[in-house]
Structures are given as C-alpha cells and as structure tokens.
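Input chain follows. Return structure tokens only.
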Amino acid sequence: MHKIGDTVHIRAIDSAKFAGTYTVTKVNPSTYALTGERAASLKAPHAMVHAGPLGSAPTPVLTQVPVPVFLDNGTVVKVRAKNVDPDALYVVTGQVSRGYRVFPLGGSSRYYTGIPGDRLTVVTEIHDWKVQS
C-alpha cells in the first residue's frame, strides 16, 4: 500500500487514457487520489497503481514454441484470450475438463481455469534464462 507523497504510476495496459506518473494525495480503503501529468485530480483503484515512476523498460525477448499435446505443471505460458494482457506470463498449475488452470507468474490470488491448449503459447526462454529439460 502506498502512502501520501509516494511517486506511483499507471501502466497503459491498466488505462491507456491515464497512463503516466503520479503523486499520491489521499489513500482510501479501495482507491488512491492522485495528482500528475495526465490529470490534476484522479481517483484510481489500488490494483491499477504501481510503485515508482513510469519507466520505459525494454520488452523482454521471449522464445515461444507450439503447445505440446499435454502441458506439465510449472510450464510458463502466455495466454491469448479476450481481456488478458498479451505480454503477461502465466504458470500452468493443473489440467481441468475443458483445458488448463493457469496462475500469473509471480503469484496472485486470481487465476484462469478452463483455458484450451490452443490459446496457450509455451515460453522457453526469457532473456538469458532457459527452461531446464
């Protein structure tokens, strides 16, 4: 949770209209009041606000391969689905009757279940890191 005076940012993925760097002016139970370059007064939910200024981080170089017939638990994948960030990485945590269950890489309480295998792309290399086989 951010405090009053902290520098935060909103990513374009979260809101293309209000993406930018802001300063927290008020903390509410579920929202922040922000002041910044795009808006003098903006109210944003906690999940949309991230620490630090908006940077221009390089996009990671990913090596992707076609999905095999069966994905093992722990396989890193990208999900191609409506309203899902196309650059986000997920981990397969199981198979269900209609597809796979995937959690965001890095952890979250929210996950997707029933994602068909043809909607998943296996990621085998992220920068200099490689999957050990």
